[in-house]
TrEMBL record:
Keywords: FAD, Flavoprotein. Its cofactor is FAD. InterPro entries: FAD-bd_oxidored_4_C, FAD-bd_PCMH, FAD-bd_PCMH-like_sf, FAD-bd_PCMH_sub1, FAD-bd_PCMH_sub2, FAD-linked_Oxase-like_C, FAD-oxidored/transferase_4, Oxid_FAD_bind_N. Residues 37-218 form the FAD-binding PCMH-type domain. GO terms for biological process: respiratory electron transport chain. This is D-2-hydroxyacid dehydrogenase. Gene3D superfamilies: 3.30.465.10, 3.30.70.2190, 3.30.70.2740, Uridine Diphospho-n-acetylenolpyruvylglucosamine Reductase, domain 2, Vanillyl-alcohol Oxidase, Chain A, domain 4. Belongs to the FAD-binding oxidoreductase/transferase type 4 family.
Length: 471
């Protein structure tokens, strides 16, 4: 079947607005957010319903071509960018962005996979509830992509990753059949949990078109602290103390080093880091009866008594709180402005975070003592963004290649030695496939390939990302 015939069939099925071929409009879909990869595609498909997704899958599958599902195109690992063959259609879910329903008694939100995270948060909020998922790219990241990468973010410590929030799913499989499992059940022990296969699969098993997510009572109260740290403050011990002393009301425990903070546009708020960096801690609750500020203050005093913090600031109003979060959330932007960074999204058991920081710094210093590190992350989840800043005068992509081959393996080896992972919350995509080969348990990898083969023997869905089918 010629490409023109396929395009004509797709136009008949999705309408002209559902099939973009004009290079002026397709360009943005073909390059990953960090501009590491640029792919080619015969067209960008923009279905408006699950039925249209089915038609697209059937037409493209029958023609022996491939599909790359795409949400907000914010993948850090090239998980939503087509390859250069020109044989993969991008399927953007951007026109499937309806909130289907909110169940205020069951605390659930049913929605299309193309809903932007910020809009999903608002829908929950409008119903007097909270969707406990927030991250820097929430203004553009879409639910399907967040599920595909099992995104984490800023409140994983208390509420978990996307996987933990997922109750139901709707997905179009590579053969055009539709998995309809949009049930709002908390308990459903009726065999394999098939919906979870799509989480972290980065669109390699099918196209997620809808989801049911867990909500929580509206987190109307918050207590937020900015805590400049003494040198070598023991982060894991501090976290354990805070969890204990706050009765686990802690929803964020973010660590920022002095260098990372220095990348963020200054403000008059006086927020600074101590010798050991800084912590941004938040407690949240839906009840007025819990004196959150007192609980936080009491716990912080204990950190001070042990000499682990230099001083501390409790946000006294929403403006101050928002400023603390702005400082944290704009670090990736600050890295870009400083010339870019090479990102290592590693995780280790929480008890190994402190050792990783020490040994990681030794590895980097031994490689090149002039390198500057932008380290920050969700210490509450054992997740560090251990980023190396591109030195002035270095070309970003060439530098990235060098770090990838020479330095990154040493950092990933260190994480592996500590039973950690080379990707904590950013996925595998196309960029980290080699790492999966190197660090994955061989039986796990083989099982992943078997799962891929079972769902997608023809390798129609996002071929080239994560794993290949068998044979
Ligand atoms: C964050 O925590 C994101 O801000 C981005 O996961 C991390 O850009 C990064 O390295
Ligand atoms: Zn992160």
């Amino acid at each position: 079947m010629s490409t023109d015939t396929v395009l004509a069939a797709l136009r008949a099925a999705l309408g002209d607005a559902g099939v973009l071929t004009d290079p002026e409009r397709t360009g943005a879909y073909l390059v990953d957010m960090r501009k590491y990869l640029t792919g080619k595609s015969p067209a960008i498909l923009r279905p408006t319903s699950t039925e249209e997704v089915v038609k697209a899958v059937e037409i493209v599958g029958a023609a022996g071509l491939g599909l790359v599902p795409q949400g907000g195109n914010t993948s850090y690992c090239g998980g939503a960018t087509p390859d250069e063959s020109g044989r993969q259609f991008v399927v953007s879910l951007e026109r499937m962005a309806k909130i289907r329903s909110v169940d205020p008694l069951g605390f659930t939100l049913s929605l299309d996979a193309g809903v932007i995270l910020a809009d999903a948060q608002k829908a929950a909020d409008d119903a007097g509830l909270t969707l406990p998922m927030s991250l820097g790219s929430q203004g553009s990241a879409r639910i399907g992509g967040l599920l595909g990468t099992n995104a984490g973010g800023l409140s994983v410590l208390r509420y978990g990753m996307m996987r933990d929030l997922l109750l139901g799913i709707e997905a179009v499989l590579p053969d055009g059949s539709v998995l309809r499992d949009m049930r709002r059940l908390r308990k459903n022990n009726t065999g394999y949990d098939v919906k979870q296969c799509f989480v972290g699969a980065e669109g390699t098993l099918g196209i997620v078109t809808g989801a049911v997510l867990k909500l929580i009572p509206q987190a109307s109260r918050r207590a937020t602290a900015w805590l400049p740290l003494a040198a070598a403050a023991p982060l894991a011990e501090m976290l354990a103390l805070m969890r204990r002393e706050t009765a686990d009301l802690i929803s964020s425990f973010e660590f920022i080093t002095t260098t990372a903070l220095g990348l963020v546009a200054g403000s008059d708020s006086g927020l600074h880091a101590g010798e050991g960096g800084t912590l941004l801690i938040e407690l949240s609750s839906s009840s007025d009866r819990i004196p959150l500020d007192d609980v936080l203050l009491g716990a912080v005093e204990q950190l001070a008594e042990r000499g682990w913090i230099e001083d501390g600031l409790l946000a006294s109003n929403e403006r101050q709180r928002a400023e603390m979060w702005r400082m944290r959330e704009t670090i990736p932007e600050g890295e870009l402005k400083a010339g870019g960074s090479i990102k290592h999204d590693i995780s280790v058991p929480i008890s190994s975070v402190d050792a990783f920081l020490v040994r990681g710094a030794e590895i980097v210093a031994a490689y090149d003592a002039t390198f500057r590190l932008s380290v920050y992350g969700h210490v509450g989840d054992g997740n560090l963004h251990y980023n190396v800043l591109v030195p002035p005068g270095e070309e970003r992509l060439a530098f990235s290649k060098r770090i990838e081959t020479e330095l990154a393996p040493q950092l990933y080896d260190l994480a592996a030695e500590m039973d950690g992972a080379f990707s904590a919350e950013h996925g595998v995509g196309r960029l980290k496939r080699g790492l999966l080969e190197r660090y994955g348990d061989p039986v796990r990898r083989q099982t992943m390939r078997r799962i891929k083969t079972a769902f997608d023997p023809g390798n129609v869905m996002n071929a080239g990302a994560v794993v290949d089918p068998l044979g």
